[in-house]
């Protein structure tokens, strides 16, 4: 049994029809998505990763094209807030634009921490469009692992507990 040939714009695609269909679907979705703003930046929320170590939380946020001076990090009790603005590089009147997929504008992201950080426990570094925030856990929030020794043999026997109710005192 031979597979049917798929044609697009006068050119034969791959001999695998599923690959060809997948490519056409991706193209259609990409064309549809061009009209909507990117959810990762520009009036949206930057993509983040959150990791936990024994003594800290590490939050990494992708902020490509954002200047360090345009990023605000704040801490309100146990809520961490990352906000700022990605500014446009040029005005639309300067050029005839054919494709515009990059977005600009304000961004905002917040997350609740499982503890309230102590003063001086938060550090932020920005390198190559990636913001790394390290939040040290307070001493009371640091988990400590305790090893329990295993004893061999049956547990020591305990005297049986009597289920009988105590006899009431009889007056003579």
From TrEMBL:
Domain of life: Bacteria
Region feature (Disordered): 148-172
Residues in SHSP domain copies: 39-153
SUPFAM superfamilies listed in its UniProt record: HSP20-like chaperones
InterPro entries: A-crystallin/Hsp20_dom (IPR002068), HSP20-like_chaperone (IPR008978), Small_HSP (IPR031107)
PANTHER family: HEAT-SHOCK PROTEIN 20 FAMILY MEMBER (PTHR11527)
Name by which UniProt lists this protein: Hsp20/alpha crystallin family protein
């Amino acid at each position: 049994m031979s597979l049917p040939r798929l044609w697009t714009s006068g050119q034969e695609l791959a001999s695998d029809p599923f690959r060809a269909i997948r490519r056409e679907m991706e193209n259609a979705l990409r064309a549809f998505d061009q009209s909507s703003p990117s959810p990762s930046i520009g009036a949206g929320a930057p993509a983040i990763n959150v990791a936990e170590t024994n003594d800290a939380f590490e939050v990494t946020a992708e902020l490509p094209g954002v200047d360090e001076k345009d990023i605000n990090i704040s801490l309100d009790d146990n809520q961490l807030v990352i906000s700022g603005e990605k500014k446009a590089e040029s005005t639309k009147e300067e050029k005839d634009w054919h494709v515009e997929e990059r977005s600009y504008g304000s961004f905002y992201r917040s997350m609740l921490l499982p503890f309230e950080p102590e003063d001086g426990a938060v550090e932020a570094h920005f390198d190559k469009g990636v913001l790394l925030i390290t939040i040290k856990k307070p001493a009371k929030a640091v988990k400590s692992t305790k090893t329990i020794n295993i004893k061999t043999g049956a547990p020591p026997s305990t005297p049986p507990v009597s289920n009988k109710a105590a006899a009431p005192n009889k007056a003579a």
